Amino acid sequence: MKIELQSLPYKEDALKPAISERTVHIHYHGHHQSYVEKLNKELEKTRPGGNSEMNSVSASESLEEIILQSVGHVYNLAAQIWNHSFYWECLSPYEGSPVSDTLSRAIDNEMGGMELFHRQFIETASSTFGSGWTWLVKDENGSLQIINTHDGDNPLSNNLHPLLAIDMWEHAFYLDYQTQDTEYLSRIWKQIRWEFVSQNYETPFSDRLQTNAGKNLVRMVG
Question: How many beta carbons lie within 10 A of that of residue 102, not counting itself?
Answer without folding.
Answer: 11
